[in-house]
Amino acid sequence: MYVAVKGGEKAISAAHERLGRERRGDPSIPELRLDQLVGQLRLAVDRVMAEGSLYDRELAALAIKQAQGDLPEAVFLVRAYRTTLPRFGASDPVDTSAMRVLRRISATWKDLPGGQLLGATFDYTHRLLDRVLAETRAGSDLAADAPAPAPQAASEDTPVGPLPRALDALVAEGLLERPEADPDAKCRDITRHPLELPADTPADRGVRLQALARADEGFLLGMAYSTQRGFGAVHPFTGELRRGLVELSFHSEELGFSVVIGEVELTECETVSSYTGTARPPCFTRGYGLVFGNNERKALSMAITDRALRARELDEPLVGPAQNPEFVLLHGDNVDASGFVQHIKLPHYVDFQADLSLIRGLRAKRRNKDNDHATD
């Protein structure tokens, strides 16, 4: 029904041309470079990289530039590019216990083995606009004479670790459930196989975590918030939140052993929750989140939502949407959601005319019926 629009091709071409001009902006201002985006808009780049499920900061920065900062559109571009890449195998499972940590905190223990590493965080800022950041010119900085910041204990150049798990003490005491993952279990890859619902068993947790890892951050934030507000009864503690560098290895059949192919930056979160179910003796239960790059809000929201989705497994009452795998997993993908919502901007002339004809016919039938009653 979209093909029948006359003159549409020229109009679309002109729209693309205008889009390019708007993207470039004022030509007298130097164009943004990708290294500037990677270095100075890192959190936006990491979000696109995570939700696009492709670990490449330069490509994520290119997508942000092309999308004029529209992050869901940038994710769409990265996902589309990802489908063109050859796939020659799967990596070995990453060992986050061996992470070289850049930041690591716990809200459950003040004194952690290895210590708390505050790192770079917005958590303790006053959320006041810093006018100094506006005092910049192309190629120069008016604040260049400002004193240098004091050295910090941990920086991007000095990762620490590996560090022990903050929750190991609870596991050793039997107060926290042990991870039940089967190292030999094969988990379905949702990028190659369609999602099968209801996906509410313990064996489906790997599939759910995949979907949550590439879900829209705002959607997951809303789901996590809803459980904390009473629609799911999950109000956890942050057992451990860590961000750092993890080695990625690949098993080579030609060599017969695994080789390290690089490092990736990951954010990992484990939450600790009590529960009201009857599936196991009184203890704490876990929620888990793992995301590419520096994505603390996403990892925390993912862990809270993961715990909420275990309601049936833990024999808890289902009282909120965040506990319903079908609701969460089918509506969290921002590419699906954005496409389905925005497609109503495209021509629907035939559909609308059909509805219009139906309404007119029903109204005419109603008028005729009213006239017959008036005559009687």
TrEMBL record:
Q: Does the keyword Amino-acid biosynthesis apply?
A: no
Domain of life according to the entry: Bacteria
Keywords for this entry? Lyase
Q: Which Pfam families match?
A: PhnI
Entry's transmembrane regions: none
According to the record, the residues making up region (Disordered) are 143-163
Enumerate composition-biased segments (Low complexity).
Answer: 143-154
Q: Output the Gene Ontology terms for molecular function.
A: lyase activity
What GO biological process terms are annotated to this protein in UniProt? organic phosphonate metabolic process
Name the UniProt record assigns to this protein = Carbon-phosphorus lyase complex subunit PhnI
